[in-house]
Amino acid sequence: MASSTSSKCAQPTAPPPQIPQVRTRIVVQPSKGFIRLDLRPVWQYRELLYFLVWRDIKVRYKQTAIGAAWAICQPLLTMMIFAVIFGRFAKIPSDNVPYPIFAFAGLLPWMYFSQSISRSGMSIVSDANLIRKIYFPRLIIPASAVVAPLVDFALSFLILLVMMAWYRVTPNWAITTLPLFMCLAVCAALGVSFWLSALNVRYRDVGHAIPFLAQFWMYASPIVYPVSLIPQHWRFLYSVNPMVAVVEGFRWGLLAKESPEFSVILIGTSMALLLFLSGLVFFKRMERRFADIV
Question: What backbone torsions phi and psi does residue 178 show, to the nearest 5 degrees?
């Protein structure tokens, strides 16, 4: 009995059944087709957009003496120079609006646009280490560089309201259209940013050309002069610049001046949408090679 009992105890027990391990493999492939955009990942990574915008704002004013006051000083000092040179000395008309208000109202949307294309043009190259390590929608990088200057715009806009109260300029119902023209400025900035940031990855000359492009574009926009100075037979070609519609609409919404020509707004809006869509398609076509080139 003892031997039979010991033999039963010596029998090896069967091992527990193995639970099969399920592995999930994620394959990241470039989109196929010429105009397939697939913007769903941009919405899925919207929190990354927030953190990149916050990073850009912190880096911009880190270790500065006056901090965010630079957002006010830069357009204010520029307006003073324009008011003396173009308003007092050159006697450029300002559509029956005090020239300091006229210049400042044009500078605000323009400086937002200029800062957006200047930052976003170098954004992909600046974040090269991030692009090589992990996957995320590359559109978020130039988009964050376009969203961040809105903080500077908001601070400067408060100064414009104070100046309007000082000069007793009262807006009318047209101020309700102001968000539409601001959206138009954002649309144009995004379109140009997509083009410049993608081109700068392959051709680094673009980074050197952006300051010249911004300076040239400013004098091709009605910042220091009204559109009424442009001859009528040049008006159509001049309106191809989307910032013409933005600046004229911005002044009309704030300063209660005569409404801009409908053709100017229509052409500028069409060009802004064309820039946005073409820049989006071009960026999506180029982004599959960013990690290899940058």
Answer: -60, -45
Q: What is the pLDDT of residue 1?
A: 47
Angle between helices 99-121 and 205-219 (to 10 degrees): 160
pLDDT recorded at residue 289? 81
Tokens of 222: 């009605």
- The answer to the question of residue 25 being in a domain is no
Task: Note whether 123 and 52 are within 8 A (CB).
Answer: no
**What does the pLDDT look like over 211-247, one tens digit per residue?**
999 999 999 999 999 998 999 999 999 999 999 999 9
List the structure tokens of 280. 């989006």
CA–CA dist 190, 147 (Å, integer): 9
Query: Is the distance from CB of 217 to CB of 246 less than 8 angstroms?
Result: no
pTM over 0.90: no
The per-residue pLDDT for 264 is 92
Q: How far apart are CA 15 and CA 119, in angstroms?
A: 63
- Structural domain boundaries, residue 249: 72-284
How many domains, the chain?
1
Alpha carbon of residue 6 to chain centroid: 81
28 in a structural domain: no
Q: Which pLDDT belongs to residue 134?
A: 84
Is the residue at 136 inside a domain?
A: yes
Q: Which residue has the higher pLDDT, 292 or 85?
A: 85
Angle between helices 178-202 and 242-255 (to 10 degrees): 150
Distance CA 115, CA 6 (A): 86
C-alpha–C-alpha distance, residues 98 and 167, integer Å: 8
The rounded percent of the chain whose pLDDT value lies above 70 is 86
Greatest CA separation found in the chain? 122
Euclidean distance between CA atoms 185 and 247, whole angstroms: 9
